[in-house]
Amino acid sequence: MLYLYDGPLDVPLILKDWYEQEAASNYGAYIPFVGTVRSEDDIEGLSFDIYEPILNSWFDAWQKKAKERGAVIKMAHSRGDVMLHESSYIAAVFSPKRRVALEFIDEFVEDFKASAPIWKYDIKEGKRIYALDRSTAIKGSGILK
Known about the structure:
Number of domains: 1
Low-confidence stretches: none
Radius of gyration: 16 Å
Structural class: alpha+beta
Oligomer: single chain
CATH topology: Aldehyde Oxidoreductase, domain 3
CATH class: Alpha Beta
Order of helices and strands: EHEEHEEHEE
CATH architecture: Alpha-Beta Complex
Distance between the termini: 37 Å
Shape: globular
Number of strands: 7
Strand content: 35-45%
CATH superfamily: Molybdopterin biosynthesis MoaE subunit
Number of helices: 3
């Protein structure tokens, strides 16, 4: 399940909802990852743009991988502005065994950082500034010649 929200994520509510959705599914492991905007480079927060068609297809591929391992993956991400110490990203894996969930959450979060079509901007003095130095080019992207 992929969830997109405008603004910061309500971490306790989302994690509780996900837990309740899967409580009777007989999973032995529930491993969440919560990404929080941290203070660096005098930013006031971060802002995010998302290209949903590519994000949906990227996430669908990860859901297939999870299913092959007997697991379920869930993800929530913010659109727009998220201020310091608020959450912009949550991912969670549910699986019968803890090792699968632990390994899968690590693989998923790392690939998210490298491949998800989400553009990050610093918010400084109320303005959005593209965070080029902390961005990763999406595999296969670039200018055609």
